[in-house]
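Worked example 2:
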Amino acid sequence: MSSARRGSSRAARREAALDRLLPAAARLLGDGGSFRDLSVERLAVEAEISRASFYIYFEDKAELLRAWFSRNEDAARAATEGWWGSDGPVTREQIRDALAALSRLHRDRALVAAFQELAYTDDALRELQAVASARTFEGLHAHVRRGQEEGWVDPTLLPRETSAWLASMLGRMTREVVPRADDTDLEPLLDAGAEVVWATLYAPAAAPAD
């Protein structure tokens, strides 16, 4: 077997282990327990894999959370592409769809809480979070600049400063508000978020000229 094929096979097995371990961690932490106190042995038993298998694919529990966060970031890039990558005027529906997709990635309260718990002391986790925040800002900034050049984003806005505010808002909502929201509260939150973004960026440019 070629080294490329072996690498691909190992990556697939690692993803399969991740698919078992993440739900197992969420179940074990569902009552508000500490991820730091959760043993690899207990996690492996819950996931129905061996402890040795865990360490084949993950150096420690922090690496497991880094893998979860990286997977979410890949999905987040795909979710925002329909919004930031749009050719031409953006609709409220495109914004709401993107916000809904981003929100689904952060609905697992236990894993979000576990990430925040370890991020206080794990430099690599904090770096991942910083890179994600920078990506959000850069994506929004490029989108706003392009929209202003093409005439479908309010030309009076300061693009860098506006993007920084919106990126901060998105980060806080997805990390802190969405995970704690009940299902009945989420839909109004998404509606309100889409309206805030629409009113800030696109409504003035879409208004008929006097």
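The chain has two domains: 1-58, 61-206. The mean pLDDT is 90.
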